[in-house]
Design the sequence.
């Protein structure tokens, strides 16, 4: 049996395709260097990013807030909606492999002027047809487009995980900040009470001619200097509550929280190895998938340099009367195949390929930069945590000695053995040290949160 010309063309083209490497296979970029973390490299693959956020944050009130945020946050819902959009585009790319099919029906009646002697008789025509066309994916353009759509879909999914990772970290950081501000408010209010007691002591000493009036007014000024910070602390608390409420998709309002001293952070921080960033950190995954997307679009751009094969067919019924439309004699049909190759199109194909290659290069450089930044963030937050550990004992010793200094100077000033300014200085230094201790503790808690986020935790 003799082959048809169309089959001969298809066979020849398929042989040509097999001998030409037009579409290049995808290779994932290297994640990073072994020394991506500044701290000494550990071969232990245990990674805190693999822990569920409820294991990192043991405060039940904080756990409730994180769960509420994941369920209600509007930015996270927007990210989920983007996944559905990308899913629709991917499904459309899968349908591109199937032929298109159109149906049509028409009826035409031509009536002539009956008063004319040369008038032709009235005519009628009826048509019912189906038209189909199919593009043969000779060079892999449709396959590459489908893979690009899949990369876009996975990229949207990675974006949603990145949003959740940032959301979990933001809720925890705001929660710890609120607890720290509460503690600072408690310290400041207690300090005001202490200053009021100091003012009373100075007034009594002035009556005994032990100190002058300057000591009294200076102690009062110091008391007001602390008291004036309280409205600012309350405003900061209110604004932080409002910001956290937005993350929870609530109207601005109060946030229930535990005491600052009740926070118990985990003490074992396992960072794993840098290669795990690709499997754990969503923004690194998103950048890698963006590179894959642009890589496949470059493959698509290459295929435009080669001819396209489109096969079309049509069939149906064509008759002069509706009653005879479905008879065998009224059946019509045709099939055609055509090759199209632009000979001159103003450099569009070359420009398309050049743009696609540059977009692919930009995506690769972006990926490499994100990996480097990820390593920097892990190193910075791990260093910040270790710094707070080193300051803990030093700060406690500082506060202990400053408390003794306050007690000693208050005793000595009664016997004119110390100047009143020493009392004021000691109390101001004690307040500063107490507030710094709260900041040290807050830095420790937030460095754990940030390290958990930087390693890619919070979405599993």
Sequence:
């Amino acid at each position: 049996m003799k082959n048809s010309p169309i089959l001969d063309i298809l066979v020849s083209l398929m042989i040509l395709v097999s001998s030409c490497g037009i579409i290049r296979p995808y290779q994932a970029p290297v994640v990073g260097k072994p020394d991506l973390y500044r701290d000494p490299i550990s071969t232990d693959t245990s990674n805190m990013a693999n822990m569920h956020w409820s294991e990192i944050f043991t405060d039940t009130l904080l756990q409730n807030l994180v769960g509420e945020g994941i369920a209600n946050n509007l930015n996270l819902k927007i990210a989920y909606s983007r996944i559905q959009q990308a899913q629709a585009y991917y499904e459309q790319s899968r349908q591109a492999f199937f032929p298109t099919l159109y149906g049509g029906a028409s009826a035409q009646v031509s009536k002539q002027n009956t008063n004319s002697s040369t008038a032709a008789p009235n005519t009628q025509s009826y048509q019912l047809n189906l038209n189909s066309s199919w593009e043969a994916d000779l060079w892999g353009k449709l396959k590459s487009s489908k893979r690009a759509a899949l990369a876009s879909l996975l990229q949207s999914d990675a974006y949603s995980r990145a949003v959740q990772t940032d959301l979990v970290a933001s809720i925890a950081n705001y929660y710890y900040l609120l607890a720290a501000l509460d503690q600072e408010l408690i310290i400041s209010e207690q300090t005001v009470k202490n200053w009021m007691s100091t003012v009373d002591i100075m007034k009594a000493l002035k009556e005994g001619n032990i100190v002058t009036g300057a000591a009294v007014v200076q102690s009062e000024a110091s008391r007001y200097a602390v008291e004036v910070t309280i409205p600012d602390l309350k405003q900061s608390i209110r604004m932080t509550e409002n910001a956290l409420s937005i993350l929870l998709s609530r109207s601005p309002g109060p946030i229930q929280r535990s005491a600052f001293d009740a926070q118990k952070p985990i003490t074992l921080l396992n960072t794993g190895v840098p290669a795990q960033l690709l499997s754990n950190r969503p923004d690194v995954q998103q950048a890698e998938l963006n590179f894959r997307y642009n890589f496949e679009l470059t493959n698509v751009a290459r295929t435009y340099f080669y001819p396209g094969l489109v096969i079309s067919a049509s069939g149906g019924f064509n008759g002069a009367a509706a009653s005879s439309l479905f008879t065998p004699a009224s059946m019509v049909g045709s099939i055609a195949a055509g090759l199209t190759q632009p000979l001159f199109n103003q450099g569009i194909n070359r420009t398309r390929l050049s743009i696609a290659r540059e977009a692919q290069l930009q995506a690769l450089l972006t990926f490499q930069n994100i990996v480097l930044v990820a390593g920097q963030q892990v190193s910075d937050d791990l260093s910040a945590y270790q710094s707070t550990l080193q300051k803990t004992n030093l700060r406690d010793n500082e506060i202990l000695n400053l408390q003794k200094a306050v007690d000693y100077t208050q005793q000595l000033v009664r016997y004119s053995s110390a100047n009143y300014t020493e009392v004021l200085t000691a109390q101001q230094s004690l307040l500063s040290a107490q507030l710094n201790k709260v900041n040290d503790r807050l830095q420790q808690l937030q460095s754990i949160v940030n390290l958990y986020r930087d390693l890619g935790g919070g979405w599993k």
